Amino acid sequence: MGYHVIDPADIDPTPDRPCTHRSVGDAADLSELAMNVYEADPGQQLPLVYHYHDRQEEVFYVLSGTLSVETPEGEYAVGPDEVFVADPDSPHRAYNAAESGEPVRVLAIGAPPAADDAHPYEPER
């Protein structure tokens, strides 16, 4: 058996990310799902690139602020206590719009973990 109590503020942010990213999953040594806390200022995006996953289901729960999500089908605005879900093979780019005027804080959960499952997506413009 194993139990953990983790304060995400105690997790060192991942270097070289477009926003503040803390991997709760890594801190808890989770092997079957990814769990991350993102804090993005206006104009910052959460993932490194516009992307999709082969197998991973991804959920973004907005804790505060408004999360913008770009998809090939359109833009979504996800407010506090709302959830955005991206199914496998569904391209998405989550970000905090430059004009938002406030930070966004998001809990992101994905399963299975996406170590080799994420692929860049190039939209046709």
From TrEMBL:
Protein name: Cupin type-2 domain-containing protein
Chain positions covered by the region annotation Disordered: 1-23
Database matches in InterPro entries: Cupin_2 (IPR013096), GPI/OXD (IPR051610), RmlC-like_jellyroll (IPR014710), RmlC_Cupin_sf (IPR011051)
Record keywords, A-Z: Metal-binding
Domain called Cupin type-2: residue spans: 38-109
Top-level taxonomic group: Archaea
UniProt KW Magnesium keyword: no
Gene Ontology terms for molecular function: metal ion binding
Taxon lineage: Archaea, Methanobacteriati, Methanobacteriota, Stenosarchaea group, Halobacteria
Species this protein is from: Halalkalicoccus jeotgali (strain DSM 18796 / CECT 7217 / JCM 14584 / KCTC 4019 / B3)
